[in-house]
Amino acid sequence: MSDEVHFSHGLAGDQQAPDWPPLAENEVASLLDGYPSLKGPYAIVWHSPRPLSAAARVTTAGGEVFVKRHHMSLRDERTLAEEHRFAAHLRAGGIPVPHILADATGRSSVSRGDWVYEVHRSATGNDVYRDAFSWSPAGGAAHAHAAGAMLARLHLAAEGYDAPQRGTHLLVARAEMLSASDPLSVLAGQLPGRPALAAYLSERDWRDDVGAVLGPWTQAAALAVARQTPLWTHGDWHVSNLCWSDASDAGRITDVLDFGLSARTFALFDLATAIERNAIAWLDIQQGGIARIDLALGLLDGYRSVRPLAPADLAALADVLPVVHVDFALSEVQYFEGITRRRDHADVAYRTFLLGHARWFAGTEGQGLLDALRHAR
Predict the structure, then answer these.
(1) Nearest 5 degrees, angle CA 313-CA 317-CA 322?
(2) CATH topology for the 141-374 domain
(3) Element housing 358 (H / E)
(4) Residues 6 or more apart in contact with residue 88 via CB below 8 angstroms
(5) Sequence ranges of the domains in the chain
(6) For residue 275, what are the contacts with CB-CB under 8 A and spacing of at least 6?
(7) What is the distance between the alpha carbons of residues 273 and 235, in angstroms, rounded to a whole number?
């Protein structure tokens, strides 16, 4: 299988050649020989289409594993350890997170040249959404309800986890811009430490762009965030990061995957992100009619069945949602501009994601979704 042509998900719902070379059989075998719980022969049985790293399912005599490889410019052993510690905390709290394996020296990630690897036990359930693109809606209100309930369980398990903020801005879902009453000043203050993002923004009137589009939401969002309790969160709660007992409406979640975007934010940030990821068909924005209020309310109802929310929380959720994507969108601009050197992708992250998503919420359909959340019963 490793010799077949491999494509990754593009930003417009298309298939593209991957930015990162796919994992190879000999590369995986050399890595896994360092894990005492695994034995050859090894065989790659599936390459992940996710575009931000290279990953594959691999069979071994010691069971199937999921191998993920990052470029060192994006992740290193230190930044991966931040994710791994949070995942381990959640697993200890009863959240079904696949185990991260340690090599013979006890490391949960392994550096080799320009690359760093992590090895997870494969999920036990069915990867129902493995071919789903990011920002494609959940498969129905029942799955949305289950996803909301599991997210609430994760937040309860995360309480008491008091690690500091992530050590990187790159492809993590932080909330500094979202939390600020003057986000332009916050961003300007970050730019000296984020040269690729600074270089991209220097070529456009970013203060006017960002100020015009985000300005209407800034004060309400900042006031809402100020009332929230800090919490480590998943950051990318999409149904494709969950495995299921089966694809039916009665299917239950068996595994929670991928803590790559996790960071210290707050619970409503994660819930707003879940709605933004699962209940708005962003890839169809040109056709209109992209809000799936049924899915948004399904997520909300599932969440509240485990972790109740007051009316003030619903108002805060609606205030945060239009700009919940801002910090991550900027991190994508930085990634595409500075690491993959894909200016075309950086333009999509800036124009379509950062500005376009916020702009959509000012329209009739976006306002209808926010009103539905504010008045949910």
Answers:
(1) 160
(2) Aminoglycoside 3'-phosphotransferase; Chain: A, domain 2 (3.90.1200)
(3) helix 357-361
(4) 97, 100
(5) 8-121, 141-374
(6) 296, 299, 300, 317, 321, 373
(7) 7
Q: Which fold has domain 8-121?
A: Phosphorylase Kinase; domain 1 (3.30.200)
Residues 6+ away with beta carbon under 8 Å from 153: 94, 95, 306
Distance set, CA 240 to CA 21, 114, 134, 208, 253 (Å)? 22, 28, 8, 35, 11
Whether the pTM exceeds 0.90: the reply is yes
Quote the distance between the C-alpha of residue 206 and its chain's center: 25
Q: Report the Cα 153 to chain-centroid distance in Å.
A: 18
Distance CA 188, CA 209 (A): 14
Cβ-contact 253, 242 below 8 angstroms: yes
Contact criterion met (CB below 8 Å) for 180 and 221: no
Residues 109 and 59: beta-carbon distance below 8 Å: no
Q: How far is CA 167 from CA 82, 83, 263, in A?
A: 8, 11, 9
The sheet carrying 115-121 orders its strands as 43-47, 54-59, 65-71, 115-121, 110-112
Alpha helical stretches, state H, 9-140: 25-32, 77-92
Of 128-132, 139-143, 170-174, the poorest mean pLDDT is in: 128-132
In the predicted structure, residue 160 carries a pLDDT above the cut 60: yes
17 by Cβ neighbours in 10 Å (0-12 / 13-18 / 19+) ranks as: exposed
Helix, strand, or coil here: 58?
Answer: strand
Give the orientation angle of helix 77-92 with respect to helix 141-158, to 10 degrees. 100
pLDDT tier, 286 (very low <50, low <70, confident <90, very high otherwise) = confident
Please name the residues in contact with 267: beta carbons below 8 A apart, sequence gap of 6 or more: 155, 228, 229, 231, 233, 307
The size of the chain, in residues, is: 377
Report how far residue 311's alpha carbon sits from residue 181's, in angstroms, rounded to the nearest whole number: 23
